[in-house]
Amino acid sequence: MSESKKQRIEDSYDVVVIGAGNGGLAATAFLAKQGIKVLCLEQHNLPGGVATSFVRGRFEFETSLHELASFGPESNKGSIRRMFEDKLKIDTKFVQVPEAFRLITTDSGEEMDVNMPFGVQNFVDTIEKEVPGSKKSVENFFKVAEEIGEAFAYIGSMKGKPDQGVLLREHSNFLKTAAYSVTEVENALGIPEKAQKILNAYWAYLGLPMSRMNFTIFAAMTLTYAEIGGWIPTDRSHGYTTAIDAKIREFGGRIEYNTTVNKILVEEGKIIGVETSSGDKLKTNYVISNATQTVVYNQLIYPQSEVPEIAYKDVNARIHGLTGFVLYAGLNASAEELGLKDYGYFIMDNMDTDEIYDSWTKLQAPKGLACTVLNNAVPDCSPPGTCLLNITTLYRPEAWKDVKPEDYVDLKNKLAEELLTKFEKATGTSLREHIEEIEIATPATFARYAKLYNGIFYGYEPESWDSMVPRLMSMGKDVYIEGLEFAGGFNRRLHGYSSALNDGVMSAQLTLQKILKERDKV
Amino acid sequence: MSKENEDKLEVTVKSNTRDLFAFTKLMPNRKKRFERASSEPIREDPIMDLMRKLHPERQYLLIDGIKEETKSTKTYNLVPDPDSETKELAYFRPGQYISLKVDLEGVRITRPYSIASSPKDSLKGFYELTIRKEESGFLTQYIWDNWKVGTKVESSGPEGFFYYEKLRDLAQIVGIAGGSGITPFRSIAKAIIDGTIDAKLMLLYGSSEEDDIIFYDEFKEMERNNPAKIKVVHILSSDIVTLEGCEKSFITKEIIEKYCDARSSTFFICGPQIMYNFVEEELKKFNLPVKQIRREAFGEVKDILTHPDFPKEVAEKIFKIKVHIGDLTKEIPAIATESVLIALERANLNPPSKCRSGECGFCRSLLIDGKVYINPVSDWRRGADKKFNYFHPCASYPITDLEINIPREL
Fold first, then answer.
1. Which of A209, A224, B23, B76 is such that its CA lies 20 to 30 A from the CA of B193?
2. How many contacts, defined by CB atoms under 8 Å, are there between A and B?
3. Residue B378: is its pLDDT beyond 50?
4. Residue B18: its chain A contacts at CB < 8 A?
5. Rounded Cα distance, A350 and A112, in Å
6. Where a domain ends, among B261, B295, B329?
7. Per residue in B195-250, pLDDT tens?
8. Are A235 and B384 an interchain contact pair (Cβ–Cβ within 8 Å)?
9. Do B42 and A188 touch (CB under 8 A)?
10. Same domain membership, residue B241 and residue B349
11. Is B44 part of a structural domain of the chain?
């Protein structure tokens, strides 16, 4: 056996973080900065999970980020910018994407083509122009959204235990919308149907129909983008995740790559350590898992008898979200030459989100796409005279469950061709003869690199009963094994890069408090 | 329903009471849902199962047959080792390779070999690897001496990007092969014939002498039976040419023009480095878009000294590398003209590796101190990796003493 296989690492840590995705990296960096002895174990040889990049030919592709929320301009920093610049001081650069989105709907009778600039007033005015008479109701949407943002901040600051009186007095519109879907509240606000269709464009970032998606989280997300814009790193997501990795080591924290955690060791309901595929037996009383609840309870807790019944019930009650399919193309002409003027395109057959979601349950041409042309935000992201195009769609994992390896490539190609055709038609462009490099990611690709259960990268679906509000208010009550916290897109703040990063910090703070309390006792 | 009193907006979805009540029921409802849910563990993960079939971390194989192709070439028939967890072979794309992991008298090395059989053959339970004995290759010598029917061999899953991609490539493939670079084209040709790929292949195959030609009869037969799809021209550098379908030449612009319409073809090149250097110069004369020329990663740069920007003054030097791996720190010697990966393997420190060409990034390591030479054609690093001093040991040469951090083996 080679020495690299036998080689051990130090065997005792205050905290072990499982996974170096957004949530795991943020948690590790936070704890390392506090001087906590923390080890992050990552099964892949790169940080980031799905927040990474890859190289084909003369192109480096962004893997999954469309636009980062909660970053914001220097003058109005969002939570992620504050985390990156002020707290962690990582060496990275972000730029704002040029517009909120371009929404194109293609069904006959349903055609729209709306270019939405950032800015709340711009949203209101653009929608008013398309749907005269909608102004007041859309303004009200943003007013309620603002109150919801404040209420979230308040609940977070109270560690999930808000005072009901304060909620009632100061956040009543939040209280009254928290249990309803987007459709229910938008109807109550009197937003005309066509205006809803435009306003709901960001739905694909959370990926469940408006009839099921909780209003509060959707409104808060839309407001964040409208207010402080969407942002993208200049050197792909790998740029900032590698920058966080560098900071972690500078703070004295540790990351081991190529190291899979096989077991989380539990004794009498308490974490006592972890075991890895490299044979490490590590002692710790605290684990922050970027691996999901689904994976931890069903595969990692050892012995299995230590998994309480409620943990299985918790996971089984929740609705696992979506996986996806991405066509990455390096084109040998510039975006300008090709007539691709915009950065972010939402291309939907129509804005009946139930119908679009339903199209993702079958192995067929998907009815909804989210696309980016990175050069329109980061002009030098590819060599002169070329550009990068990502076309993304989503799938329910069940749609892929019977695919056989020998049919896999043909299926990939068929769906990719359908995506491309749809994109070309909607944008009036002709791209295929310009494809110099192409890569296609499927649910199996996400399962391969990020070891995601069923390839799912959108966490549990935020219907009202399982949206951010009840999740935040369950804080502390959802710890079934002492010393175990989760961090990332399946946790309290739902999926999405900024949510996962913020959740990582929150889980690290909770763990830190427990450690400090423990130390005080000694 | 919503009304505004002066500045204060009051939203009502159903009624004031019902909305507030709905909020108070959120937590109890969630609790109820949990209570009502099944307490059965989740055992299935069909997407992960599909992934493992497509991309197994390791495949445990057994040599089931050996065929002599030429005086220096053998084809090994590999099947799943019945004593192992490998029950079926991973399906692949014609042109892909597997990375063998071989224990060479205590030194564990990896080596990529293109799969020479068709993907459909993997469904029948076998891969074929055709290996040419290299004059100075200590691995191929070892294989010649030791691999017998029944020998166990460990490999990666299928890897690499040297394959025909319908959405990108033109349906006329021109394969340019040199020496044992023929192997991926055998897989591609078979896949064209059995319908896995819908394309045509014009193969220009360079060999030095007639008896170096691998698969002569086999390709002749494929050509005979599928004249519309497969064509082969042998390009020989030796003076003696007796076989049918041979040109005495190099793979020049003129030869390419004689047999292909370059503008409407996608070129796939696989062979020794020296052939790339020559053929690429010839192809430049056609001024083709970059997308029409695809190269297989050619493995380790054989003679780094021939690269004009390599600092010649360090050629004779042996440097020290301080290697961190896990909690171990070890100092090892490294020859300037050998890749850092080879130095690590000689010292029995093996970071994970597959392509040995700089391409796959599997050996990605951190350069803490010192300088390495990276050949620009093998530099496939991500932008941020360059910024933060990550490097791929398989495509990097020490030109000072180094301190590095390498990942542990999987």
1. B76
2. 256
3. yes
4. none
5. 9
6. B295
7. 999 999 999 999 999 999 999 999 999 999 999 999 999 999 988 888 888 999 99
8. yes
9. no
10. no
11. no
